[in-house]
Amino acid sequence: MEYLLGLAGFVQVLVQGALFFFRPKVGHGTCPGLSVVVCGRNAEFDWKRNLDLWLACKTTQPVEFVLIDDASTDASLAFLNSLACQEGRVRVLSIDSKSSPGKRDALALGLSQAKFQQVFVTDADCRPDSPTFLQELMDILGAEPALFVGNGLLISSNSLASNVAMAEADRLARMNFSGLPWIGFTTAVGRNMAYPKETGLAALRYSKKFGTAGGDDDLGLPFLVSRCQNKRFGYKPSTLSDAPATFQDWALQKQRHWKTAPHYPFPIKAVFVLRWLLLGANTLGLIVLPFFHSKITMGLVLAGWSIQLFSTFLWVYVFASIRKPTPKALWVYLMAELLAIFVPVLILLQKPTNTSKTWNSNS
Predict the structure, then answer these.
(1) What CA–CA distance (Å, rounded) separates 242 from 250?
(2) Which DSSP category does 319 fall into?
């Protein structure tokens, strides 16, 4: 067992090390036109805070904004219609009543009405990390329709639940990005993705057959991966969100992912199992380190966990430089690295109850 844990530490070094040596692919030319599709439910506050930032993004090619009100009961629709009267690039669509959870129906409506073949999808509670967001995205996508997997950052509150949930989400994102050169796209933040319009609609029809609550993530993403010839990913441009992250809503998301996982293609399921086994072995190795006899094994385990910590600092201070955590938040990050395998398992054992709109309930 001691040597197996050492081997896991060594493999962890290789997997996480890919994060630092691989660079994302970029398309040739610039996207000729982009439809920005944004869904929101009871998101009047988010629309008012974030839409101006999206509209302020300058591009060299035409962009339209397709805004979908997902059966809101607040004044969202009235605000969106008023904005559309003032801004010619904005089109507003609405769903009168919800027939299923999640944003799948709203997203399907938005995609079906998009003018351009290349669409970018985000949520009402998200904003661009800079005024150059859309131009950066269109340059990465290139002239041909492509799948783009982006990075959606959660700007945590001061609560412990929010910090831990954000830390675990960022850790999972790092794990997936680090594996992209060899295994392809397996998961991503649904609120920062771009893909060909028709392929996106086909992905929604595919995922709907299984009754999952997700929209453009969960089962839709493996479908997109298999159907899109051109694939891009990047740490930037990023979306930012202040939506609250609580233990209850995080648990709800984990339960949803757990139910979705059996329907994933076998290669993707195998990759997920391998990653969690590596991370679990690495964390267990660190905990039982005092009982080891081999200095080589001890060194491998420490190296495996050290590169996890190093990637945490790099992620926070380079790729996520827009968010400078407090010392307390950084300690939470480090503890989340140590407990990364155990916290999600505990969450899966919970029986969460549905809650109001949160950072994950509509993505």
Answers:
(1) 15
(2) I
**Summary mean pLDDT of the chain:** 76
Alpha helices in the chain (DSSP H): 2-21, 44-55, 76-86, 104-113, 133-141, 160-183, 197-208, 220-227, 247-260, 266-287, 295-314, 327-338, 342-349
What is the pLDDT confidence band of residue 82, given thresholds at 50, 70 and 90?
very high
Give the domain ranges of the chain.
24-159+185-245
Closest C-alpha to 178, from 4, 329, 27, 11:
11
Which tokens hold the place of 341? 């395998």
Query: Which helix (H) or strand (E) is 63 found in, with range?
Result: strand 63-70
- Tell me what pLDDT residue 144 has: 94
- Residue type for position 27: G
Distance CA 166, CA 332 (A): 10
What is the value of pTM for the model shown? 0.77
Q: pLDDT of 207-258, one tens digit each? A: 887 766 665 556 777 778 778 888 887 767 888 887 766 667 667 777 777 7
In the DSSP assignment, the letter for residue 48 is H
Report which of 26, 223, 201, 47 is spatially closest to residue 127, judged by C-alpha positions. 47
d(CA 100, CA 207): 13
Asked if residue 337 has pLDDT above 70, the reply is no
Q: By percentage, how much of the chain surpasses pLDDT 90?
A: 31
> Which superfamily does 24-159+185-245 belong to?
Spore Coat Polysaccharide Biosynthesis Protein SpsA; Chain A (3.90.550.10)
86-to-77, 91, 243, 334 alpha-carbon distances in Å:
15, 11, 27, 47
Question: Does the structure show a pLDDT above 70 at 38?
Answer: yes
d(CA 167, CA 175): 12
